[in-house]
Automatic annotation (TrEMBL):
The lineage of its organism: Bacteria, Bacillati, Actinomycetota, Actinomycetes, Kitasatosporales. CDD domains: TerD_like. It comes from the Bacteria. This is TerD domain-containing protein. Residues 1-170 form the TerD domain. Residues 201-218, 228-239, 248-258, 277-299 have a biased composition (Pro residues). PANTHER family: CAMP-BINDING PROTEIN 1-RELATED, TELLURITE RESISTANCE PROTEIN. It comes from Streptomyces olivaceiscleroticus. Residues 176-350 are annotated as: Disordered. Gene3D superfamilies: Mitochondrial biogenesis AIM24, sav2460 like domains. Residues 259-276, 317-336 have a biased composition (Low complexity).
Length: 564
């Protein structure tokens, strides 16, 4: 009996069948629509690094024929033959996709499925309907992936864009229009199910039909040369047209300094605000380094010439004692320079003075750029904070677990990113920090903001907060887990370094790992329109997916200098 999969379910192939020569059938249809059903053979980085393993209508099989497109049969819109034990080691994932050829949306499709058949018996099936999608023009149906052993995952993830966008998303390129590759006369009759009678057991073809010779030197994947071009016919002297440049550019003369300064002036004239969300407390410059005198003396002893004036830059400050004024020479004389006048406690107290707690009487008070204090006695409202972020508290404070709610748990379980919160209540002060990250309090006065859940440190319980999920193939974890805050109160975000606040324009894109927050009025769109090649080239970003932001003037995003 076939095992029924739901979206997100995974299983070992060995738990479904002992066979490795499998039939994969896809059934998808909609009135007036045609579909391109393909298989992408991806490497360990989930990129199409070898375009010979992009199996579609113009390239129906891989070089060693471990992947073959068989065409429609047995009630399936498209079918494939997958021989797992013949797939080369550099192919770590097989992604089966369906894209609409022309206009249309995936919400128009009827009931469909992707199924696995072994030895004529169906062993797994994942069913889907158009109600699970909206305006997407493609869908990622299921994946075979290597994780110690071959496994199957039911994906069911919609994708904005057609077959070309899918190809670019996986790191490939769209070649010029070329004649379709010749199809084989008949698909191998190994073990596909038929509607009338049980299929025979698999047997290798006795006499395979003549076929074009595969590219030479395929036998050992680790020693093969640069991958051959995709379906387009190229002259034998140019096996890799993608990597070649049309003309060798002549070295350009060194640009003069003035145009370069003009470009910098234009860049700095753009309406970009680069500043921390909360200015860090001003810190005085460090005292002059010890050891600048020609004849250094031990700490606590007078200089070599007590009566002779010493230039201010070379005058070291006394160890353990704050100098009278930064940048000014210390008082001259044998007693005022080196010997503490009020006992050993005065120097220690002075040296720690600049690190003392900043008591301002406000609800939230930054103690440094990486530590913030919440005063629970200001308005009596509790504080919600990330579990494990409390580093110190004073007074009578109660800590309790605060879940994300039923909906939050569902989102968290689906993404693996459920945020665990603790509730801090009572009378006292609580200090928060995490992993030496920079902290920034953001005060809301009836407005709203969306924050990446990984960047939330703490917030007032009086704020309304809602868990949201942005899905997209290529985003770490499969989705971006966000929280929207609204109302009156303060939310504290954490960043890796000093963030940048940018206005939202029609061409604003951000990496999913770098985005911290954005205005609630901004629209977020998963973008995969980045051209990727197998070899790096100038202007190549290396990102497989980005977040595009759109909105009216006045909207903004906050980005941190951080990348995984």
């Amino acid at each position: 009996m076939a095992r029924e999969f739901q979206r997100g379910h995974k299983a070992r192939i060995s738990d479904l069948t002992a066979g490795t020569d499998l039939y994969v059938g896809v059934q998808i249809a909609a009135p007036g629509l045609t579909f391109d059903i393909s298989c992408f053979g991806l490497d360990a980085d989930e990129r199409l690094s070898d375009d010979r393993y992009f199996i579609f209508f113009n390239q129906p099989k891989s070089p060693e024929e471990s992947l073959q497109q068989l065409g429609p049969q047995a009630g399936d819109t498209e079918s494939f033959r997958v021989t797992l034990d013949r797939i080369p080691q550099h192919i770590q994932k097989l992604s089966f996709t369906a894209a609409i050829d022309g206009a249309g949306q995936m919400s128009q499709i009827g009931p469909g499925y992707i199924r696995i058949v072994a030895g004529g018996q169906e062993v797994a099936r994942y069913s889907f309907t158009g109600s699970e999608f909206s305006t997407e023009r493609a869908v990622m149906l299921g994946d075979f992936y290597m994780k110690d052993v071959w496994r199957f995952a039911a994906v069911g993830q919609g994708f904005d864009g057609g077959l070309e966008a899918l190809l670019r998303n996986f790191g490939g390129e769209v070649a010029e229009e070329a004649e379709a590759a010749p199809q084989t006369d008949a698909a191998p009759g190994f073990a596909p199910p038929t509607a009338s009678e049980a299929p025979p057991a698999f047997a290798p073809p006795a006499a395979p039909e003549p076929a074009p010779a595969p590219p030479p030197g395929f036998g050992v994947p680790s020693q093969q040369a640069a991958p051959a071009p995709a379906p387009a016919q190229q002259p034998p002297t140019q096996p890799e047209p993608v990597a070649q440049q049309p003309d060798v550019p002549q070295p350009a003369p060194q640009p003069p300094a003035a145009p370069h300064l003009d470009q910098q002036a234009q860049m700095h004239a753009a309406p970009t605000i680069a500043a921390p969300l909360a200015p860090p407390a001003a810190t005085p410059p460090p005292p002059a380094p010890y050891g600048a005198q020609p004849q250094p003396a031990p700490y606590g002893a007078p200089g070599a010439h007590p009566g002779q004036p010493v230039p201010p830059p070379a005058q070291p400050g006394p160890y353990g004692q704050q100098p009278p004024a930064y940048g000014q020479p210390a008082p001259q004389g044998s007693g005022a320079y080196a010997v503490p006048q009020q006992g050993p406690g005065a120097g220690l107290e002075a040296s720690l003075q600049k690190y003392r707690e900043a008591a301002t009487g406000q609800r939230w008070t930054p103690q440094s750029e990486k530590l913030i204090r919440a005063d629970l006695g200001i308005d009596g409202q509790p504080v919600l904070a990330r579990q494990g972020s409390m580093v110190l508290y004073q007074g009578k404070v109660d800590f309790s677990y605060k879940g994300a709610g039923f909906r939050g748990r569902i989102v968290g379980n689906a993404t693996g990113q459920e945020m665990q919160l603790m509730r801090c209540s009572g009378q006292g002060q609580v200090f928060f920090a995490e992993n030496s990250a920079h902290v920034h309090p953001i005060e809301l006065q009836g407005d709203a903001i969306c924050v990446n859940a990984e960047s939330v440190l703490a917030f007032d319980e009086s704020l309304q907060h809602e868990v949201r999920r942005i899905e997209g193939h290529g985003i770490p974890g499969g989705a971006l887990f966000t929280m929207q805050f609204q109302g009156t109160g303060t939310v504290v975000v954490k960043t890796a370094g000093t963030p940048v606040v940018l206005p939202v324009t029609p061409t604003t894109f951000a990496d999913a790992n770098a985005i911290v927050a954005w205005s609630a009025g901004s629209q977020v769109i998963i973008s995969s329109q980045v051209r990727l090649r197998r070899n790096a080239y100038p202007g190549h970003s290396g990102e497989t997916v980005n977040l595009q932001f759109r909105g009216a003037p006045g909207n903004f995003i906050v980005v941190q200098p951080y990348e995984v």
